[in-house]
Amino acid sequence: MSAVSVAGATTEPAWVRRVLIAVALLFLSLFLFVPLISVFFEAFKKGWEVYVAAVTEPDAMDAMKLTLIAAVIAVPMNLVFGVSAAWAIAKFDFRGKSVLLTLIDLPFSVSPVVAGLIYVLVFGLQGWFGEWLQAHDLKVIFAVPGIVLATIFVTFPFVARELIPLMQAQGQEQEEAARVLGASGWQAFWKVTLPNVKWGLLYGVILCNARAMGEFGAVSVVSGHIRGQTNTLPLHIEILYNEYQFAAAFAVASLLASLALVTLVLKYIVERRVHQQITQAKSAGAAA
């Protein structure tokens, strides 16, 4: 097939491109830009003093603190799991590899509400471990441990799913060379593997943290909605809105919206570096 025919098959008229761009911009405006602008408009509608009072009142501060606690615990644990799983899948062949890949994707296919219900069935008073937990005066459901477990479940694919294709694209040649030169497995990981995937790792951590701080469904099921104790920021927003405290609800919601905007900026920056890493890895593999 000639270059002219390929170009003719992939080049559309200018009006088609303009229509497609206009449709995309219209869709983004209706479902992203307008809602986002309305959140900040409603948040500051009654003035700066009302906004500050809403985000600094005790229940909001407690919700913010609990959200940060859940993220601070969940993200490092998912970081360790993601690196371990990606390293095993990309660098080694073993029985059950496809099963592990499927399980990593499980939170993407299971509703967060269902995940929360599973934890209730396992750790609730009438659950499998309910009597044992009660006998030892331990609380998981309607307490911080349950919120952390639910957050870990819904966020654990993000780091692994970013690292697996990057590690697979890089291949095993550099690690094998390091081992030939006398490096141990840990030395090869810290000196070769980790530096090569640092941007992909950071990208996965950013996505994981954003999801952890914004999770609603699974956390809602296991939290019990106890003000000042088990309410995260999304749950606190729901309560404020249901109580018709709209200014306060939008004020707190603007915090999460700001987090989303920061995440998008970081995602864009890191995504470019990840793309460059994958391109360089493929080029190096082709040259080898």
Counted beta strands: 0
Q: Largest sheet, described in full?
A: none
- Terminal CA distance reads 29 Å
The fraction of residues in strands falls at under 5%
Derived structural class: mainly alpha
Shape: globular
Write down the overall mean pLDDT: 84
Residues in helix, % = over 70%
Report low-confidence residues grouped into runs of 5 or more: 1-7
Rounded to the nearest angstrom, the radius of gyration is: 23 Å
Helix-strand pattern: HHHHHHHHHHHHHHHH
Number of helices: 16
Can you describe what's shown?
The chain is mostly helical and 288 residues long. The chain has helices at 3-10, 14-43, 48-56, 58-91, 97-104, 106-109, 112-123, 130-135, 144-155, 157-170, 173-180, 185-196, 198-214, 217-223, 233-242, 246-287. The radius of gyration is 23 Å and the shape is globular. It starts with a helix and ends with a helix. Mean pLDDT is 84; it is low at 1-7.
